Fold RNA polymerase sigma factor.
Amino acid sequence: MIAEKKNVVTMPERGANVSALFISIAAGCQPSFTTLYKQYYNQILSRAMFYCKEKSIAEDITQHVFLVVWNKRITLTGIEKAESWLWTVTRNHALSILRKEAYNRAYINYVKEGAGLKEQTPLQVLLNKQKAERIEKIISTLTLRQQQVYRLNRNHGMTYAAIAKVLQLSPDTVKEYMSNALKTVRERLLRHKDEILVNLA
């Protein structure tokens, strides 16, 4: 009787590059996934920290990246630049989290700006809240790059140089995106300046 051959998933040698690990992970090799995790955890965490500055959030981003690797393992063999792909997943998820925080931060910023040294009346609080909502609606209509630049600068206090590094753009390009975004926000706020008061009537 001839014994049937079994498909055996072989693990790459120690120190194997990420592309070799991806191929093995795609075949369902859990030890290769563990190796990838150990080799890249700190690097991904550092990149995530660059974007969000908070370790707990950076750790969540890092865990998300490895979850994506495992959940999409079948597609890993089609990725040509595996390491770059890891950095892209890290950056995209970090920016996604920053976008989700943008509205709350925008509201807080505008309330602080409107407060000055005096305590706000309920009407002032409501006006600032509605202004923040209007601005967020305007920002959501901008191009993706303009949205990213505006939110990273206004909601997270990042400089043009830091934004350029995050988005892999030149500082001059970032400045141009920000200028165009601010121009659009100002023009549309002026166009709808009476709407807030009308809504309160």
The two ends are 90 Å apart (CA to CA). The first helix runs from residue 18 to 26. Confidence is low (pLDDT under 50) at residues 1-15, 114-118, 196-201. DSSP finds nine helices and no strands in the chain.
